[in-house]
Amino acid sequence: xxxxxxxxxxxxxxxxxxxxxxxxxxxxEAKPFSTLSVPEARTQATPADAAxxxxxxxxxxxxxxxxxxxxxxxIPSAEGGLAARVYIPGGKGPFPVVVYYHGGGWVVADIxxxxxxxxxxxxxANAIVVSVEYRHAPEHKFPAAHDDAWTAYKxxxxxxxELNGNADKIxxxxxxxxxxxxxxxxxxxxxxxxxxxxxxxxxxxxxxxDMDTPSYKENANAKPLGKADMEWxxxxxxxxxxxxxxxxxxxxxxxxxxxxxxxxxILAQIDPLxxxxxxxxxxxxxxxxxxxxxxxxxxxxxFFGMGKVVPEAKQALDLAxxxxxxxxxx
Length: 330
What we know:
alpha/beta
C-alpha cells in the first residue's frame, strides 16, 4: 500500500543487540518482502541467518546443543505426506510433546530456518518438539496450511506412543503465521472434541485482518516486517480478500473462544502484529481462558529464536519454557 512513510507513527528504537541483527540482515542484502517475487523472497537471507552471523562475529558457538537429537519424519496426509522434524531431549521418556508451527507468512521459510526455538524448547522443557512443514502459498492457497496443521496435530495425538510421548501432555506452539496455526489447532481440538492441548504458546501470532491497528501505525516501516510486507503475505496466501476475514485468519472476530486451552502470548514491541496478539489475548481472557501475555520492548518480529544474541529473546524463551513446564505438571 502506498504512503507507508506518512503512515508510520513513533516507532520505538531497537535495543543495541536487536539493532546489530537488523544491521547484519541489511549487510546480507535482505530486501523488504513487498519488493520481491515469491522465489526471491524464499531464497534471500533470513533474520535467523543474520542472528547466526552476529554469533559468528562475537565468536559465540553456533553448534546445536548436543543434548537434543533430531530425526526427520513424514506425517501421512491426503496430499502425500508432510515433512516434520522431531527434536528429542536426553533421557528415557515418555516425554511431553509440543507440536510446533514455524513462521513465514504462510509463504516463505521452513523447518530449517526455524530451528532455534524448537531446539531450545526441547532442551528447556524436556519435551519432544515436532516441527511441522505445512504447504505454502501461493502454490497452495488458504486454507491448505491450516488443513495441514490440523492433520499434523491429529497424527501426533494418534501416534503419541510411537514418538515416546505422554498422551496427557501435548501442547501446541507457533510463531507468526505459525502462531495463527497453533491457535486454530487449539480451537479445532475443542470444536471437534479431539484431545485438547494442555497449553498453546502463541508468539506474535497473526490474529486479525485489520491493518489499521495501533501497532500497524507505529511499525508500518519496521524491519524485518512492515505493513506492506504483511499485505504481500496476505495477497499471496488468499484467493480473494474475503478469505482474510475468515475466522481462521481473523481470530479476533471469533466469539467461540471459551473452553480453549490456556495460552502464553509473547509479543514484540516493534512489530505490526503486536496489536493482533494484544487483542487476541484480551479476548481469550474475556472468554475465561487463562492467559499469560508479555510484550518485550525494543525487539522486532522474529526475535524469539535469537536467544544467543538478543537477551530479550532468551527471556521470552525462558517464559515459554516455564509456562509449558507448568502446564505439563498439571
